[in-house]
Write a structure and sequence with these properties.
Keywords: Membrane, Transmembrane, Transmembrane helix. The chain is mainly α and 126 residues long. Helix content is 83%, strand content 0%.
Length: 126
């Protein structure tokens, strides 16, 4: 934690701390499977399935390249494996960016909650 987190923590009441604790960041698996719900769920499921199929296909092509007796055949299988592994990397990057954007949205909502709590405290003290 940074010193700013410590200052914010000291300024909060017990009720505020309990409310913010109930909105803690979920674990990695909850975040990973959490992107498969919501308005973009169909697109993300499609990308996840393509990712899985590209990885399995790339692993198979790599295995075929290793076992090929002809150099030209090994190059063809190797190129196929390379392309499929690049698709896997592209899909994982897309899914990772979506996870990170969800994480950023959660943090923005936490800040909005803190601002709303500060407003309600300041309007109640007047």
């Amino acid at each position: 934690m940074s010193k700013y987190d410590d200052l914010i923590g000291r300024a909060l009441t017990e009720e505020d701390r309990a409310l913010l604790a109930s909105h803690q960041e979920p674990g990695y698996l909850a975040q990973a499977f959490g992107i498969l719900t919501g308005p973009m769920a169909r697109v993300l499921w499609f990308v996840y399935i393509v990712n899985t199929l590209a990885f399995v296909g790339g692993a198979y092509a790599f295995w075929q390249a290793l076992n090929a007796m002809d150099v030209l055949l090994a190059l063809k299988w190797g190129l196929g494996a390379l392309v499929l592994f690049q698709v896997t990397i592209l899909c994982k990057t897309f899914l990772g960016n979506r996870m990170e954007s969800n994480r950023l949205l959660r943090e923005i909502k936490r800040v909005e909650l803190q601002v709303a709590m500060l407003r309600s405290d300041s309007s109640g003290n007047r």
